Amino acid sequence: MTTDVLRQLAAVLEQRKSEAADKSYVASLYAKGLDSILKKIGEEATETVIAGKDGSPEKIVYEMADLWFHCLVLLAHQGLEPGAVLSELERRFGLSGHVEKASRTKP
């Protein structure tokens, strides 16, 4: 079910690329460009942190949904699909976080 929702949402986000900015919130984000999308993700991340501190399950879920949504907008803007993130999470499954972090190449 979850991956179906992600696929459906990814398809809608892709469609919004061809819509007018005054007709679609997502199209307006695309039109404003990467910096606006990133700013929105930062705002949503902050709201998610605040909800987490408040401890209300409903607020956490609501804000997390906003954060994930805007992260999906970023993926679509960059020509990526949610499946790429799911594949990376799958790759990490069963791998110690310490081992995974140590395996990253440093710039």
Task: Explain what this protein looks like in three dimensions.
The structure is a single chain. This protein is mainly α and 107 residues long. It has six helices and no strands. It has helices spanning 2-15, 25-32, 34-54, 57-77, 82-92, 97-103. Helix 1 (2-15) packs across helix 4. The longest helix has 21 residues, at 34-54. It starts with a helix and ends with a helix. The mean pLDDT is 92.
Can you tag this structure with a few keywords?
mainly alpha; 107 residues; 6 helices
Helical content class: over 70%
Structural class: mainly alpha
Mean pLDDT, all residues? 92
| Uncertain ranges | none
Fold topology:
Blueprint: H1 2-15, H2 25-32, H3 34-54, H4 57-77, H5 82-92, H6 97-103
What can be said about this structure in brief?
With 107 residues, the protein is mostly helical. The protein is 77% helix and 0% strand. The radius of gyration is 16 Å and the shape is globular.
